[in-house]
Amino acid sequence: MKKFHIIILLLMLTEYVKASEDNTFYDQLNVGGFSSAAITLHRDAKAEAAINELNLLLSWNNHSRLSFFSELEIERPLAWNDNERYSRKESKLDLERLYFDYNLSEVVNFRFGRFLTPNSRWNLFRAPPLMWTNSRPLATSRLFPIATNGITLHGALPFKNVELEYKLFTELLEDQQQDNNELQFEHVRGARFSVKSDSDIGISILSFSERDAFNGLSGASYRMLGLDFVTNLYETEISGEVFQRFTSKGKEGGSGAYIQTAVPIKGNWYWITRLESLNRPNEGVSSTGRCNTCFESFCWGLVI
Asked: Does the keyword Signal apply (predicted)?
């Protein structure tokens, strides 16, 4: 029987604040962060609550060609349920991002380190307060690697009334530590091209191998095609992505998609609706619907 959840989401995004020291280096250092929490009430009247993550953001920029960015995350630092009460068993520390940017021009830039795989629009804006919800679509976490250790070549080309952006990336170092429930990928390389005007439309291609979940050995190799968009219809924001994977032999390798709308209600209140589906090999097809009501960074909603 499907569980019916009433979820109360608390999203907080702190603005970057400059360090107060007089030293020039510290004046160029910015610190910020975000966090989200949720309360879930099940049909059987049991309740769960958790701080989903606590993220620290650190960046440095002296307005030269070189800049630095890092994100450190504590996953589920605190959880509570009717049986175990308070618990920290699921808490763990992750280095989400750590990279250097080198700017040659608007057309050519380099990024080196650990960065979010830039083949998905959701990955480019992963902070929950920026995406209206703290729960990412399954298609953006179960079909391809969320992060990559390597190098990216990226830039933008103005063309008439639009801007053409490109990102070319490849993995240089495999993850040295894997979580038990985390999908393992390797040999990642790909590209994303997008057109920005009143709407933002992107297309991505990606190749990678997925390790066997049981023994960690190299498994099937995949090629993946992705399409993403975000646009505004009157005052409603509409966004979505669709992904299709193929094995190296051209067979079906899994797929996924989502579409999300943000409809203004009154003032800073918005009604958020998202429909999504996921199809992974040997796991079948799953689909969910999500509705949220948000006031700035505070959300409550239903998941079916």
From this structure: yes
pTM of the model: 0.80
Beta pairing, strands 284-295 & 269-280: antiparallel
In total, the chain counts a number of residues equal to 304
CA-to-CA separations, 139 to 44, 254, 266, 278, 279, in angstroms, rounded: 29, 10, 31, 6, 8
Distance CA 274, CA 265 (A): 16
What are the beta bridge partners of residue 55? 34, 73
In order along its 304 residues, the chain shows pLDDT tens digits of 333 333 333 333 333 334 334 457 677 889 988 887 777 776 666 778 888 888 899 999 888 899 999 999 988 888 877 666 666 666 788 888 999 999 998 899 999 999 999 988 888 876 666 666 667 888 898 899 999 999 999 999 888 888 999 999 999 988 766 665 678 889 999 999 999 988 899 999 999 998 766 545 567 899 999 999 999 998 899 999 999 999 988 888 899 999 998 888 887 788 888 899 999 887 767 767 666 666 555 555 555 5
